[in-house]
Amino acid sequence: MAFQREIKDHWYVQYKEMGFPAIQKGWVLPPERWKEFDPFILMAEDWFKKGTFPDHPHRGFQTVTYVIDGRLEHIDNGGGRDILEPGDVQYMNAGWAARHAEDGVENDIAHTLQLWLNLPKEQKKSETIYQNVYGEEAPVVSFRGGSVKVFSGSLAGVQGPLDSIVPITLSEWTMAEDAEYTLNIPGNHQAFLYVLAGDIEVGENKAGLKKHGVGTLTFNEDEEGESELKIKANQRRSKVLVYSGAPIREDIVPHGPFVMNTMEEIKEAYADFRKGKFGPPAV
Q1: Could you read off the pLDDT of 63-119 as tens digits, one per residue?
Q2: What are the beta bridge partners of residue 173?
Q3: Which of 86, 114, 193, 208 is spaced 20 to 30 Å from 68 by Cα?
Q4: Dihedral of alpha carbons 66, 204, 230, 235, sign
Q5: How do the domains of the chain map onto residue ranges?
Q6: What does the angle CA 124 – CA 40 – CA 18 come to, to the nearest 5 degrees?
Q7: pTM of the model
Q8: 125: buried, middle or exposed (CB in 10 Å: 19+, 13-18, 0-12)?
């Protein structure tokens, strides 16, 4: 019998007003708790206008950005430039030396979720990669009263288009009132969910979460097979994002825009940026 996932811990995101052109921020996954979330480092929910996240560097980790509302313009110094709209996802492997900008478009307020995902030590100086996944490109599996859209991983008999260096799963569940669904995810993956809208129950113990609710899920790191995650909607138009990934189990030092294994490597990253090793600005 497959391992049954339950809510391990849960909380509701608290928001802080920011100085213009930023508008508001909340921590879905607080950065100081990264050891509990491994391989996930943090997840921020942001509302912002153009000028908030201009040209800046990254090294040593990956990001997965989901656009909730507004439009997000991505520019990188490798020549990439695109506009992402609600329901789109961007993946970035910062690897050795990413340099990019993320901004609202014109007078839009961009509303995004950005997940920071660790890289194993041997991958921290890998090639920088950007991949945009538009909402309509992700396969959708329908069930009675709802559907699951798969952005990453092999889930519900389909393969998501997002191709991350460290394999993860990312799915978006849209459900009507009383709809139920059980999804198989790798049993040895750390997993969490975030309620974008509505009211849901999770697992056989029927733990409840509403909009802005975050739930980390039980898991067994030694589990070789799949586990089952059951969700039921108590309200129409419930929408949930579910993320999972295998723990890396390495100490890290998150500092500013870099995530490395030691403070010496952080200092090296800053020195390399000052020396121009990250390339020209993203404009």
Answers
A1: 999 999 999 999 999 899 999 999 999 999 999 999 999 999 999 999 999 999 999
A2: 148, 240
A3: 208
A4: negative
A5: 3-245
A6: 105
A7: 0.96
A8: middle
